[in-house]
Amino acid sequence: MNHTPIQARLEEERLRLARGERGRSPFSSGLQRTAFRLLAGFFALMLAFTLLSRAAAGLLTPRVETGSPRTGVLTRRFAASGVLEPLGELLVELPAGVTVKRILVRTGQQVRAGEVLMELDQEDLAQSIAQLKTDIGILELRLAQAAPGESAPGDAGVQAAQRALEDAQTDYQHLEARRARAGERAAEDLALAQEAEAQAQSELRRAEERARERLIQAAEDKCKAAGDSLSAVQEAARDAIEGAEDAVTAALDAQNSYRKGYYEAVEQTGRLKEQLSAAQAELWGLLDGGASEEAVRAAQERVDSLAAALESAKWSEPNYSYSADLAVRRAQDNVTKVTDRQNEKIAAAQAEVDRAQEELERTRAEPEIGDDSEVLAAQAALKSAGQGVRSARRALEDTAAETEAQLLAARRAVEQAEIALESAQAQAEDQRLTQARTQEESRRQNEIDAMGWRSERDTLRRRLASLEGAAALDGALAAPADGTVLSVLERPGQLQTAQTAAVLSQGDAGFRFRGSLSQEEAARLAEGDEGVLTFTQDGKSRSLDVTLDAPGAPDEKGQATVTALLPEGTYPTGAPARLEIARRSGQYPLCLPLSALRSDGDGDYVLALREEETAMGLVQTAVRVPVTVTDRDSDQMAVSGALSGSDAVITGSSRPVAEGDRVRRADGTE
Question: Which of 148, 288, 391, 608 has the highest CB neighbour number within 10 Å of its CB?
Fold first, then answer.
């Protein structure tokens, strides 16, 4: 009975146990012991790899800090930087028509009496001084005529006013003529510049047309050259193919000649075989028929003769040679190869023709003339001409603007002189009509009029003194007293109407803080908000509790002015200061640290932890939760969204964390 190895082993063990012997150890074999040790090592290695993998995963998984949304109150802090400035103001006024050439001070700057504030145009200054003198002269005439004991102004006053009017009209006419001449010259310059621009534009069009023609001509030449090359290739291809075909014809002729001789020899041998067979049959027939010896001998001789001829024909019959066939085949193959090669050359030449034709059509449709040197030079010339036109137009506009203000001032001087003349005439007429009135009534009336004229004259004299002082300093307008510049003209230019050129501060009326905040921050403040103002005085830091005034309207840069009145006392004018304001919001149901906020193209969001059971156990993953930020301060934010007080929101991490990342808490929990 045959047993398998396992059955044999089992039978051996059974017999050993039946004899009372000890069973063999399963590891008695060296191979088995080696296998056991390898298996144990494998499991130990797998355990080590598992532990190492978990350790590596622990190192690579980001550790995060979390927080839960809580009810809270936000405290917004605002800080405005500014200066301390006095509240008293001293106005520095200028008459209409004076051009300010240069401003030498800025807002917030402290100035001394006599310090230059700005430089004025001396020509405008001279005209204003002359006009002020004319106005003062008219007022003095009125005052002189209204003096006690004198009669009311009569013909002398009218004549003086008439002369003043004539002088003003003459000045206006001179200004108008000068403006016309300047305008004509500026208009001529503009016309010349525009003509140059038109010529440059025409030259650019001509340059573009010439560049276009050059490009098209080059494309046509290239197309013609490609066509000539194609014709040459086709001609060469025909010659090459015809030569190959002639070689085939020659090979076929040689093959046919060889085959003719060979087949004629074969046919000759066949005929001799047939004749020999017939002669042998005839000989056998004579032998069988008992013919005479002479007939048999003659038949035998014929058989021998045909046999000899057949043998000779066999020896002379050539073996068939395939060289002629091979030559024909090679010649035919050569025709195919030559034809294919020439067709390839023709195709390449045709492709070049097609490319040249496409380039020609493209050039005709849209020639690329942008890099042409002549076109670039014409474009540069046109650009330069355009700049000349703009400069000439700007000069024309500037000339009109400069003389317009002067004409306006001269026209107003004429109008004032006309009014003065009318007034003088009216006064003379009134004087003649009221001569019957008593001298006391005339005196009282004159005194009343004189008071107004005297006040107006004194005002004009102060303004004249200021302008004459500026004229003496070559147009420099000086500060009349010590102070701080509260405001000044923003930029040089002509004063279209009489206005304030600068405002100086005087500290005897108190002090205030003036700073600025962004429009968004200022909108969150209100009058009555309290803050702490800090500044430096006499080398020491000071702090004051102040109350905020209503924020001002935002300027064009989005900055709003904030002010606060300082307690009574002396403060450094123009000293830099900082106002800090803390304002608490209402209570919000969901507040988180600002570090939890994230943003991308889809809006604001936070990352919350979500737990899920996997094959590796319980894991925690970062998930996106969209939120809307309703308010914030420097540390916290109030949000709304799909959050609750039990959610764990990521507020910090050891490594960058994105949506879907696996994380673990800072306390080690995954």
Answer: 608
3-state secondary structure of 88: strand
The closest of 555, 568, 583, 580 to 512, measured between CA atoms, is: 568
Q: What whole-number distance in Å separates Cα of residue 609 and Cα of residue 560?
A: 43
**Both structure tokens of 609:** 């932890």
Spell out the residues 6+ positions from residue 52 whose beta carbon is closer than 8 angstroms to its own. Answer: none
Handedness of CA 212, 213, 214, 217 (dihedral sign): positive
The rounded distance, in Å, linking the Cα atoms of 199 and 94 is 48
Residue 412 pLDDT: 77
Question: What is the model's pLDDT at position 9?
Answer: 67
Distance, in Å, from the CA atom of 375 to the CA atom of 372, rounded to the nearest integer, reads 5
pLDDT at residue number 82 = 92
Q: What is the DSSP string of 456-516?
A: HHHHHHHHHHHHHHHHHTTSEEEPSSSEEEEEE-SS-EE-SS-EEEEEEEEEEEEEEEEEE
Which fold, 208-365? Substrate Binding Domain Of Dnak; Chain:A; Domain 2 (1.20.1270)
Q: Tell the residue number behind the tokens 């003649």, with chain if given.
A: 432
> 79 and 580 in contact (C-beta within 8 Å)?
yes
Q: What is the Cα–Cα distance from 25 to 13, expressed in whole angstroms?
A: 11
Please state whether 114 falls in left (phi above 0), alpha (psi between -120 and 50) or beta. left
Q: Please, what's the b/e burial string for 234-268 (b: 16 or more CB within 10 A of its CB; e: otherwise)?
A: eeebeebbeebbebbeebeeebeebeeebeeeeee
Spatial contact of 525 and 478, defined as CB atoms under 8 Å apart: no
Which fold would CATH assign to domain 63-73+586-665? Answer: 2.40.420
Cα 258 to its chain centre, rounded Å, is 86
* Cα 56 to Cα 500: distance, rounded to the nearest angstrom: 77
Question: What six digits make up the tokens of 220?
Answer: 């046509």
**What are 514's strand-pairing partners?**
83, 563
Q: Is 664 left (phi over 0), alpha (psi -120 to 50) or beta?
A: beta
Residues of the chain with CATH 2.40.420.20: 63-73+586-665
CA gyration radius, the chain = 61
Contact 124, 146 (CB under 8 A): no
| pLDDT (0 to 100) of residue 151 | 46
The DSSP-derived string for 275-329 is: HHHHHHHHHHHHHHHT--HHHHHHHHHHHHHHHHHHHHHHHHSPPP--HHHHHHH
**Which ranges in the chain are annotated with CATH 1.20.1270?**
208-365
The DSSP output letter for 198 is H
Q: Could you tell me the pTM of the whole model?
A: 0.32
The helix or strand, by DSSP H or E, that contains position 348, with its residue range, turns out to be helix 323-365
**63: amino acid identity, one letter:** R
Residue 566 DSSP label? P
Question: Quick check: helix, strand or coil at residue 58?
Answer: helix
Name the phi and psi angles at 472, rounded to 5.
-65, -30
> Sign of the C-alpha dihedral, residues 488, 489, 492, 493?
negative
Low-confidence stretches of the chain (pLDDT beneath 50): 149-153, 496, 670
C-alpha–C-alpha distance, residues 626 and 585, integer Å: 23
Structure token pair of residue 565: 């009145």
